[in-house]
Write a structure and sequence with these properties.
The complex is a heterotrimer. Chain A is an alpha/beta fold. Chain A has a two-stranded parallel ribbon with strand order 1-4. In chain A, strands 2-3 form a two-stranded parallel ribbon. In chain A, helix 3 crosses helix 4 and helix 4 crosses helix 5. Chain B has a domain of 71 residues: Cyclin A, domain 1, CATH 1.10.472. Chain B has 5 helices and no strands. The relative contact order of chain B is 0.14. By secondary structure, chain C is mostly beta strands. Chain C is globular. The mean pLDDT of chain C is 96. Classes of the chains: A alpha/beta, B mainly alpha, C mainly beta. Chains A and B meet through helix 1, helix 2 and helix 7 of A and helix 1, helix 4 and helix 5 of B.
Amino acid sequence: MNDPGELPSGDGAGYYRRMQAAVEELLILKGVVTADDVDRQVEAMAGRDYTRGAKMVARAWVDPAYQARVLADGSAAAAELGLEIGPLRLIVVANTPEVHNVIVCTLCSCYPRMLLGIPPEWYKSRAYRSRVVREPRAVLAEFGTRLPEHIRIRVHDSTADMRYMVLPMRPAGTAGWSEERLASLVTRDALIGVAQLPETV
Amino acid sequence: MRSHHDLGGLPAGRVERDEHEYAQWEQRVDALMMLLSHKDRQLLRVDELRRNIEALGAEAYDRMSYYERWMHAIVQVLIQRGVITIDELGRKMAEGVQDGNR
Amino acid sequence: MGTADAIAPRFRAGDRVRVRAAYPPGHLRTPYYCRGRVGVVERLCGAFANPEELAYNRSGLPAQPLYRVRFRTADLWPDYAENREDVVEIEIYQHWLEQVA
């Protein structure tokens, strides 16, 4: 017997997951993509994270000529290290003793994904996007980052075709360290600008 | 008039320092977006996705999660471009396709 | 010099520019908070297809020069309480910018 109360829900948890599965199936049937294409793309993205940016930072710290190239053309500098970044147009901005950089996309969540992978959830949040252009120090304080009074902040709003990464300052006490060891000091949050690396290690 | 997604400078609460482990289906939405926008296929542009997300309306925009908004937008663009039809999508969803864990 | 595919740049680094105080509907990449504000061109990024058109699957050509424009944060928010030297730098397409003396 037909019981209207048992009709399947067109709603609720899992609706978009079901939509994803259905769309993927349709596109495979139509020969637009293969399941393999999707698997490989998932893997490729999972393989991108902040350690790729950390490599660039470490090289820039040990090689001033490379640092100059990083700041002049971030994409070319990434390619130099064999980091595959597709069409990403990267601008790297350097922290100095006077200037601290912070990255945001107030309009959505633009991030140098092809270099650093998927951004953290908080980077996409309403609170981060709306407040960091308005009260950057208050937001940084929520990340446990307190900047000295005299420091100027540059907030970069990724509104169009460029993507950004911060070049943090090299901690003192690292003379003679290998690039690998230097890279291990770099954090994702320091590349976004909500955190600093220690002044000294 | 300020569009709902155009958030810069608006008052908001604390930044919840969420670190979200993305579910398989969410990673596959991300993958689909990359594949469809790739120059070899050019079946959608990121700008079309953004336009569709921005058109969601305030309540839906706030309620939906990041990848729910993207999934919604991908479908809108594919329908707008005639790559899939609403009818075939509805039928496929009703079939109860296997989870995207391939 | 403009071509069929790209509009000629009008501005250079150091130029003072104002963001037009226009409020059209549609897909825009010029954030609301900088409209009507004056800043300084930090650099020309290149010329890119107009996202307002790309959003409708049109070509967006001829490409628009895209600039990074630096605004004093204190000029964006009347009650800005942090460092008066702080800046916000935003990528803005040429058709949104006007010359300022």
